[in-house]
Structure formats: structure tokens, C-alpha cells
Amino acid sequence: MSKKxxxxxxxxxxxxxxxxVNCQMTPFKPPVLYxxxxxxxxxxxxxxGEGVLNGKSFEKEFFYLDVSVPFNTQNLLxxxxxxxxxxxxxxxxxxxxxxxxxxxxxxxGGITNDQTMTLVYTFDPQSNSWSIPxxxxxxxxxxxxxxxxxxxxxxxxxxxxxxxxxxxxxxxxLILDTINLSWGKGSLVNAPTPRDYYGATLLPNSNIIYxxxxxxxxxxxNAETLNIVSGNAxxxxxxxxxxxxxxxxxxxxxxxxxxxxxxxxxxxxxxDGQRIIIFGGFFINPGYLDTTLYELDIINFVWTVPExxxxxxxxxxxxxxxxxxxxxxxxxxxxxxxSIASDILLLDISNNxxxxxxxxxxxxxxxxxxxxxxxxxxxxxxxxxxxxxxISNTTPAIAGAIVGSLFGGILFSFGxxxxxxxxxxxxxxxNQENQAGYVIPIHGNENFNNYxxxxxxxxxxxxxxxxxxxxxxxMLRNIVVNKTSRNxxxxxxxxxxxxxxxxxxxxxENTTNHEQIIPVPEDNRNYNHGQEITTSFIDDKLQxxxxxxxxxVKQEINQNVKNQ
Length: 564
Description:
Number of helices: 4
Helix content: 10-25%
Signal peptide: 1-23
Low-confidence stretches: 367-397, 430-536
Number of domains: 2
Pfam family, one: Kelch_KLHDC2_KLHL20_DRC7
Shape: globular
Keywords: Kelch repeat, Membrane, Repeat, Signal, Transmembrane, Transmembrane helix
Transmembrane segments: 397-420
CATH architecture of the largest domain: 6 Propeller
Strand content: 15-25%
CATH superfamily of the largest domain: Kelch-type beta propeller
Structural class: alpha+beta
Largest sheet: 5 strands, antiparallel
Protein name: Galactose oxidase
CATH topology of the largest domain: Neuraminidase
């Protein structure tokens, strides 16, 4: 009896160890995200927003990517923080890095149906906690679909829209002082027409450049081709400059290879501080293959198409872009299949003569012939990557996984040795027990996977001693071979774009794409609830394991009673 219990006890510990190691080694896979925020703080790229998986909305998505260590875009090690996320479900908000020490995530605005959501939230990466700051001054305007720009601790919030049901384009420049926590306003003299989904980037001379966008309520686009199919986006033949020091506006006329009208794209400042790089967005297809990667020389305001090598990815819309080290890091969006393509795109922009699409991230600072004065100020949300000496927070998790694996291996080895010795002793007793009517086959032909309708193990060759053991060993093997992932494979839904649009077919005779376009209101979308991901596999196996232990013990007791 004591050997039986010791046998089950060792298998139980071994099973628990394997389950623990399996959970530690299962990577977090985020759902599809767009209209999210992406904020770089202390070598961590924090992603916050409303995710979608198989038509179901995920409201508390909050995670980060550690960029202090090398990685490959096909094997991203996201760190999930959704369990500490207190922000109500929303989209189309904006965020920056600010605060007194320039190490706080500042979140403003967004579209939400939750009346409890405030205008501003702050996240402290040191304590991993959210809070609602008390801000002096009066501002009751909730804006969305805008891009916030941070400079000297002040967050500039120009235009955007307000009400998601009967929205209006906001004609204002709100200024949030993230250090002193107070509201202010900037000048609108000579300001451009109000808009949303534009590009905005801080320049080295403390100016902010605003590019493109949309101010047409009939605007809609195709989520696969990214072509504008109704309404129109704004031109990129002119750009707008806001001087944060003198609080005034100016307009610059551009030339060269001017991109077609577009909205929902991303912009970053080049590493030399002399060019703006844009990617993606909804655009007008003029009848020829339109590229989605351009650069604007901000000295002469000339557009060009940069030389690019590497595998060119599908364009995206409603994504985010950050400059990290020598890369333009593009995160999520729509326009790609995330079961095939990575959620992160890397464009090496260290060589102005030739950009490179790559899948490998190197955290070292590029060796550029660029003076420090040309780079963005330290408070910019697109500042270069800090020193790689920062210790990665993933180290404890990796160490835990390694220790867990070693511990599981030791237990497994001990269990195998014990089973070998136990079975060897049983063989020695085999002849004596056969005379008393016992049959204990060690390598028999029993089928331990056949169960009747009552869930009872059925076999033509079995007895009370080997039935429980065989079933548990089979189950253990299956757990080791078939590791259950924390998340199923993600598929990108084909979202339908913007506002109050019906099913329509492009009527432009010059348009070659005649697939059906099925837009849906963006702000009030209802997701079809598909089957939810189940994580009950291990629980079911543990329950079966417990039941079989109890059954084997009962049979052993009954057999001993009969023998006595």
C-alpha cells in the first residue's frame, strides 16, 4: 500500500511541475489592435487599447515590448499588464511620455461609451499603477482621433473630433502641462482647417509639423486595399508648422513626388533631424501602384520616395510608429493578416540613402554622423533609445522558467528511476503472484484510451494494478507532447471603415478593385461573439487524474480485503 501511494504522489508532483513550466514558457499573444496608443518609456514600448479577436472585443488590453534586448519580429516576447489595467474600454485616444521626471505615461481623450472614463490618466512604470491626476484649470472637452505631441513637459492637443455619435471637428489647440498639471490654450491665428487622423511630429527647432488628415464626414476606405472609396482625405501638397515658443502658425508649400491625399498614416522624425518619414494610411489610388512610404525634406520641403531594400510589408492604417534606436518601429493597425505577418514592423533608417525592412532588432545606438543639436529634444516622444544598460524586466521570468524546467527535469528523472526500480521488483515477484492469480503486464498491449459511455476504462486485458498507472502515464505523455498555448492563433478580422457607411461598390471606372466594400460604424461597432478561447484542458486532465487515483486506491483496498 505504501508503494502505491508513493507512486501516485510522485506522479502528482511531476504533473504539477510540468504544468507550471508549461505555463511559464507559453508566450503572451495579443489580439488585433488598431487606433491604440504606443508610448516608449525606459526601453519599454507600452501598448494600450481595445483589441479584437475572432470578432470579440477585448477591453483591457495593456502590455509592453522590452526593447533593451535584441529580438526577432517573428518571436515577440510581449509582457501582459492587462490585469492591472483600470482604463475603461476606448479607442482613438492619444498618449505621450511626460511628467516631472519625463517617465510617466500620459493618456488623454478617446472614444468610449463608459461615462466613468475621465479625460486624463497617468501610468507610473515604476509602481505599475494607474492614477487620475488633479489638473488645474477648466477643460471638459473630450477629443479623439488626434495626435498629442510632447515638448518641455507640455502636451499639445490640436483639433480632432469630439462626439462619436454626432461628431464635430474641433478647432482648438489645448495644451496640457504634464509637470505642473494645468490646462492652457494655444493660438489659432493662421491655423489650418480642423481635422482628424493627421500626422504630427516635433521638430528639432521646437516646432510641430502637421500633415494631411481628414475633415470629410462622408469619408470611408477599404480595409484591404486601403483605397479611399467615398469622400476625400486632405492634401499633402502643403504642411503646417506650429511654433511652440512663439505660439504662432505658418504654412509651407511642398514639391517633388507629393504623396496622394491620405489619412490614418504615421509620421516620425528621421535620425538626422532633417526629414519626416510617413508610412501607410488611406489614400487615393490615381490608377497606378501608389507607394505608402515617403520622406519629406524639412529644409526645402521636398517629397521623395526613399530607396528601400528588404521584404516590403503590406501597408497599414490606424497603426502607430515610434523611433527606437535606429529603427522606425510600426505597431499593429489593420491591412495585414497577423496570423502570417508580425504585429511589429522594423524599418532601419540609419542610412539616409537606403532604408532597410528587417525582422531583427538590435538595441545598440546607431553610429551616425549626426550632431546632437539636430536630434529631437530629450522630452520628445520619439527620442533615441536610452542606454542598453537598463536591466530587462523579463529576466526574472526567464530565470523562473529555467529554474522551473530544471526542477521539472529533476523530478522527472527521479520519477523514471523510481518507476524502473519499482517495476524491477515487481518482475521478481511476478512468478509468485501469478500462482495467486495476479497478472501485472509491464509492456502489454492494453489500450488505455478506450472508454465506455460512462467514462470507465475498457480493455480486454487489464487488472486493478495497471489500469490507473497506464492511464496516468498516457495522460502525462500527452501533456508533455501537446503543450496547450495560453492563446489560440490570432486572425485579423477585416474591419470595415469609418462612420455611417452602407454596403457599396466603387463606381469609379478607373478603379480596378471591384470587390465588395462592407463598412461598419467605427464608433458603435458590435462584435460577433465567436467561441471563446478555453483554458480548461489542464483542469480537465487534473480532474481525470484525481478520479483515477481514487479509483485505483479503492480497487487496491477491495483487493486486499478479498485476499485477507
